[in-house]
Design brief:
Its EC number is 4.1.1.32. Pfam families: PEPCK_GTP, PEPCK_N. GTP binds at residues 259-264, 375, 406, 499-502. Residues 19-228 form the Phosphoenolpyruvate carboxykinase GTP-utilising N-terminal domain. With 602 residues, the chain is α/β, with parallel strands linked by helices. The chain has three domains: 6-54 and 78-230, Phosphoenolpyruvate Carboxykinase, domain 1 (3-Layer(aba) Sandwich); 234-306 and 387-555, Phosphoenolpyruvate Carboxykinase, domain 3; 309-378, Phosphoenolpyruvate Carboxykinase, domain 2. It contains 18 helices and 29 strands. The strands form six sheets. Strands 1, 4, 5, 6, 7, 8, 9, 10 and 11 form a nine-stranded mixed β-sheet that branches. Strands 12, 13, 14, 15, 16, 17, 23, 24 and 27 form a nine-stranded mixed β-sheet that branches. A five-stranded mixed β-sheet has the order 2-3-19-22-18, with helices on one face. Bound molecules: guanosine-5'-triphosphate (GTP), oxaloacetate ion and manganese (II) ion.
Length: 602
């Protein structure tokens, strides 16, 4: 066999890349082509260009140096799940959890929209690396886009430019992402994924997860497919380090659906008593987590991103002071309001807006001043809680995995799965109320397994089987938990204070991992009794705590039945082990429920 020399791989990769750029240019007909190097000078040039074109507005440079505002088209403010497709040769491989089109038909449909779409525009070639540039867990891609705003965001959100291109040349492969804002007509908008070709095509949107292709499209949909083939996990999870008073740091990964508290938990500021005792919280990631079993059998995780694309509304000194401190400089704000002196403003901040997110004089009759899905894009390094371990090539070891969602009733504040199989069922069964992060109705309860409903690039049944496959000899798997910060009382208000006080729940979780914390066993898992949680200094009525930790077996019966029906929607692809587990819990609930509920459910 002839050995292929490194230089040959390098030149053939560059050839592939050049040929692809040429092909795209022939189709889209840009006026110019710009290869991004990620330098400061390039960033400066793009900012000036966008300021001149009105794509960016400078905010108050005295209070917010280096901060700018971008207003997207009012019909282009969130991910569009109904226009997001996974195009596999076999429809079953995409699964009922994805919208699907056959690859040939999909290419034909979207290429027709790309035809000539970059006339009068510059085509930017954006090489990027998801994850630390020297990590074996990282993966690279190249996004072609005609949006300088996308380039500017990709520069913050990924390791973008020359170093990424060098890694691509060395490795010989990369994910291809083609993006154009097109004419922003929602009728000519598609976000298409071709996992078998490791490629993405997105047109008609300039917004977040639709357009920053390194993020949801690559790091979740395509990566989840690759991860299944290669034995790792690509998840919609934050990664946070919790340092206890003894100076030990444990890392936790948590999956909550979009706009359900990942960024907040990742940057949590401990309550005062905890701070005094020496607890610290370190942010590794706030949205995406790639993890792989290490030589020691533990799961080791990296954050593939380099920045935060966080929800602005609700971010305040009271809720997330770390995030607020992070966005005081060098931040791109999208669809927030502004004050009379040009500072960014959103609901939850003090002061008053004068101009709303659409650039109109603020009038409460028009709704919120900032769009509910308005965002900030900022380098993760600017967070006061930023963990240097986020740059570690081997990643960080995960002690606990947490699932959670917005559940106004039924689901307790926290519970622990009995074992890995049960934990996978807990993740698969996740439900949450929809939020403004995607277009469509808000506040509707839907199943969102592992918070990946919009992001899993293949059949959920296969995905559950992949999760189960990590339970094998030699594995040192994290314990799995479920939390619910969003339980509401009869008055419609949240029962749990949330935010910094969530550390109380994390302390119990880590205590369980170390075999210290107590719990009672219930059909749905281990639940703390009020005395098992550290509630010192918390002004919470005893009745609220009781309600937060109650397990209503009669109420859980129909929920567990619905979970069974949901699992069945993936047909043969649902692993038997998961269905057996669901039946086991259903039986335990039936035995625990008072007789009338059993009869009703029977
Ligand atoms: N009641 C309550 N609300 C919370 C809590 N944590 C976060 N929120 C609110 O939930 C909303 C979204 O929070 P984020 O932390 O930005 O959500 P995310 O999961 O990072 O969202 P994406 O970036 O869309 O994936 C904000 O309005 C927060 O104020 C909590 O513990 N309790
Ligand atoms: O992808 C986006 O547009 C924002 C985001 O993090 C999410 O929706 O989970
Ligand atoms: Mn997200």
């Amino acid at each position: 066999m002839r050995r292929v020399r490194a230089e040959e791989i390098m030149s053939s990769t560059l050839e592939t890349l050049n040929r692809w750029v040429d092909d795209v240019a022939r189709l889209t007909r840009p006026d110019a082509i710009h290869w991004c190097d990620g330098s400061d000078a390039e960033s400066q040039m793009l900012t000036e260009l966008m300021l001149a074109r009105g794509d960016l507005l400078a905010l108050n440079q005295e209070t917010h140096p280096g901060c700018h505002l971008h207003r997207s088209h009012p019909s282009d403010v969130a991910r569009v799940e109904h226009l997001t497709l996974v195009c596999t040769r076999n429809r079953e491989d995409a699964g009922p959890n994805n919208h699907w089109l056959a690859p040939e038909e999909a290419h034909a449909k979207i290429d027709a929209l790309f035809d000539g779409c970059m006339q009068g525009r510059t085509l930017y070639v954006v090489p990027y690396c998801m994850g630390p540039i020297d990590s074996p867990l990282s993966r690279c891609g190249v996004e072609i886009t005609d949006s300088p705003y996308v380039v500017a965001n990709m520069r913050v959100m990924t390791r973008m430019g020359a170093a990424a291109l060098a890694r691509i040349e060395r490795e010989g492969h990369f994910v291809k992402g083609l993006h154009s804002t097109g004419d922003l007509d929602p009728d000519r908008r598609y976000i298409m994924h071709f996992p078998e070709e490791l490629s993405i095509k997105s047109i008609g949107s300039g917004y977040g997860g639709n357009a920053l292709l390194g993020k949801k499209c690559h790091a979740l949909r395509i990566a989840s497919w690759q991860a299944r083939d290669e034995g790792w996990l690509a998840e919609h999870m934050l990664i946070v380090g919790i340092e206890n008073p003894q100076g030990q740091t444990h890392y936790v990964a948590a999956a909550f659906p979009s706009a359900c508290g990942k960024t907040n938990l990742a940057m949590l500021i401990p309550p005062e008593g905890y701070r005094r005792d020496g607890w610290k919280v370190w942010t590794v990631g706030d949205d995406i987590c790639w993890m792989k079993p290490g030589p020691d059998g533990r799961l080791w995780a990296i954050n593939p991103e380099a920045g935060f694309f966080g929800v602005a509304p609700g971010t305040s000194q009271a809720t997330n002071p770390n995030a607020l401190a992070t966005v005081q400089r060098d931040t791109i704000f999208t669809n927030v309001a502004i004050t009379a002196d040009g500072q960014p403003w959103w609901e939850g901040l003090p002061g008053a807006p004068t101009v709303d997110w659409q650039g109109r004089p603020y009038d409460p009759a028009n709704g919120p001043a900032a769009h509910p899905n308005s965002r900030f894009t900022v380098s993760a390094r600017q967070a006061p809680s930023w963990s240097p371990e986020a740059e570690a090539a081997q990643g960080v070891p995960i002690s606990a995995i947490i699932f959670g969602g917005r559940r106004p009733s039924l689901v307790p504040l926290v519970f622990e799965a009995h074992d890995w199989t049960h934990g996978v069922l807990v993740g698969a069964a996740m439900g949450s109320e929809t939020t403004a992060a995607a277009t469509g109705a808000v506040g509707v309860l839907r199943r969102d397994s592992m918070a990946m409903k919009p992001f899993c690039g293949y059949n959920y049944g296969d995905y559950f089987a992949h999760w189960l496959s990590f339970d094998r000899p030699g594995a040192q798997l994290p314990k799995i938990f479920h939390v619910n910060w969003f339980r509401k009382g009869a008055d419609g208000r949240f029962l749990w204070p949330g935010y910094g006080d969530n550390l109380r729940v994390l302390e119990w979780i880590l205590g369980r991992c170390e075999g210290r914390a107590e719990a009672r066993d219930t059909p749905i898992g281990f639940v703390p009794r009020p005395g098992d949680l550290n509630l010192a200094g918390l002004d919470l009525p005893r009745a609220a705590i009781a309600e937060l930790l109650d397990v209503d077996a009669a109420g859980w019966l129909p929920e567990m039945e619905a979970i069974g029906e949901y699992l069945a929607t993936f047909g043969d692809r649902t692993p038997d082990r998961l269905e057996t587990e669901q039946r086991r819990i259903l039986a335990a609930l039936a035995a625990a429920a008072p007789a009338p509920a059993r009869a009703a459910a029977g």
